[in-house]
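Need residues for this backbone.
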C-alpha cells in the first residue's frame, strides 16, 4: 500500500494514539525533567505545521515543524508506529519536513532527542544533522542531544 504524508490536525484519535505511544516510550527511557514533548494543544498553535503519515488510510507516523520566528525551526513529535517501522516512514516525513523548511527559506532546522534513541540519532545524522549546544529555552542535559542542519549559507 502506498505511503501518504499530509498536513493534518493533530487532534484525531490515530494521532493521539501515536502521541501516547511516543510519551510512553520516552517515559520508559528518561526522567520527567529530561522529557521535552509538546502536548496536543501546543501542536495546534500558529507557527506549527503537523504532518501525518498514513498507509492504507491508517495513521502510522507523525512529526511537527515548529517555527521559532528567527529563521529557524525545530522538529518535534517525530514518531513512527513500531508496526510500520522499516517502511521508510521516518525518511519520508523528514523529506517532507525539510522541503517545507526550505520552501519557507528557513536558515536551519534544529532538534532535541535523547541519547538512548540510536535509531532516531542515526536518522538525523543520515540527513546531515550535527551536534550543537543547547538552544532556545533548553538547558544542557546529559541525557539530551541537540542537533542542527543548516539550510542556507550565512
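Answer:
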Amino acid at each position: 500500500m502506498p505511503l501518504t504524508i499530509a498536513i493534518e490536525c493533530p487532534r484525531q484519535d490515530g494521532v493521539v494514539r501515536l502521541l501516547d505511544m511516543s510519551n510512553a516510550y520516552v517515559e520508559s527511557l528518561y526522567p520527567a525533567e529530561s522529557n521535552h514533548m509538546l502536548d496536543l494543544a501546543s501542536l495546534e498553535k500558529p507557527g506549527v505545521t503537523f504532518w501525518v503519515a498514513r498507509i492504507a488510510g491508517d495513521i502510522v507516523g507523525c512529526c511537527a515543524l515548529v517555527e521559532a520566528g528567527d529563521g529557524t525551526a525545530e522538529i518535534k513529535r517525530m514518531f513512527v508506529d513500531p508496526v510500520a517501522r522499516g517502511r521508510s516512514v521516518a525518511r519520508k516525513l523528514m523529506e517532507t519536513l525539510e522541503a517545507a523548511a526550505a520552501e519557507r527559506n528557513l536558515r536551519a532546522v534544529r532538534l532535541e532527542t535523547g541519547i538512548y534513541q540510536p535509531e532516531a540519532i542515526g536518522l538525523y545524522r543520515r540527513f546531515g544533522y550535527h551536534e550543537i549546544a543547547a538552544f532556545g529555552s533548553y538547558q544542557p542535559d546529559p541525557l539530551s542531544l541537540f542537533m542542527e542542519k543548516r539550510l542556507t549559507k550565512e
